[in-house]
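In keeping with the milestone schedule agreed at the kick-off meeting, the structural modelling team has produced records for the first pair of proteins. Each record is given below as a sequence line and a structure-token line. The laboratory manager (R.T.) confirmed that both were archived under the project's standard naming scheme.
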Amino acid sequence: MNRYYPIMLNVEECKCVVVGGGSVAARKVEGLLESGAEVVVVSPAISAGLRDLANVGAIRVIEREYLEQDIDGAQLVFAATDQRTTNAKIAKDARSRMIPVNVADAADTGSFIIPSIVRRGGLLLAVSTSGASPALSIRIKKELEQRYGQEYESYTKWLGNLRIRINKMEIDERKRRELLREALDIPPDSWNNDQDEEAWERQIAVLMQRLHGRDCT
């Protein structure tokens, strides 16, 4: 079994090429669009869903068989055709260019795999069994979806806004970290991302008081 190194890539506005036009390719495209990538799909035929995305300009489609030059300048490549020999060629071409490649029908021939993902705004939870059991990954993903509901999108945004303000304070780094840890215990009814600066200052003052109370005990 391959031992993968987990990493989060920033592919926003980066060219990512998906070769294939079926349901597997569509799933790859969906995840890339959620990450802000510039997606190019290469396939002589594409699904209705991909056609809709192309019609609104969300993706670019090259409607023909794959050619080696299609992956020039790509940051990521996805081999998602229903032809194993074609996928193998795509993987070979990508490796020769030092481009990370994912191979749908033979994960171990590619350089990376796609985990099961739960996305809640800035919160991204990824689950992988390194290819041993996709079914287990899906089961754990469903458990995470129930444990971390849609409210965590607002929560992570609130924590990010709070962090920006705390990092501007003239206090030492240790105190900043302690304040941010203290914020994890703030109840959901306080996760207000639309409050004015005075409200933010009051909220931070409450955190300071709580932290001071803990230091005194």
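The second protein of the pair:
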Amino acid sequence: MSYPISIFILDVSNSSSDGIGDELANYLDELVTWNTIWTEKLKPIHIKHRAGDEIIFVGSGYSTAYILAFFVSRIWKYRNHNPYFGLSFGDIDKHLHDIDIEKWIHPLIKQARYANDLLKQDQKRPLFKFELDQFYSGNPDNPFLYNQFRNEFETLLNTLLYIQHTLIKEQTKIQELVCSSYLILQQQKAVGEFLGKTPPTISSHYKKGKCEEILHTFTEIMKTLNSLEKKTYHTLRVNPNEASGILLDSIRSHLKENINTLHSI
């Protein structure tokens, strides 16, 4: 029996500079706690802060790691030390309950690590990169993902992520704050009340900051990964879209309770 999972490996840019290594380490510990809270209803998951400036996450579902990584990237507060995420997804023949993340060796881990290393070497350094094919030939029982088109799918996915990253980089600080606030609050009126700005001002920042395009890309990538999982696994206990909805609700609920942390970005 196989199980659908996704993985991210988070690393931090310039983590050894500015003398804030301990502060960053404490922040990563906090993010591990937050991700654990967000995924409470989707257990089992594995998440670990290790090697000083690295977090590794493994959880059920093709889209889970990307959803978590996207939210972390939007609330990240150290703008001189941005995170970047090597991502992979696929299938394993063990239940996550039976995995020891500290000892587990699997091609999907190698893929996420390889994607992370490619980002580390990229001077433009996008936030996200998927690796789907470098080390893993896949499960022949799951033809929807592991067929002759997987290279093309990886290219399209990473191209979308690169365009998304370009739009994010072009945002001003207030546009970034509006976009992140809207991701959580989902209403421009609520964003205006939180930021103390008028609806027309919020609308202007939202449009000029290409927030709709950034968030639409996030949603479409999530939906595509969910569709792929649903086509691969015809007898899932929980529909992938429903699982993602549960995860999104959990993340937003927790972040609304801690919404003032956005002022630090």
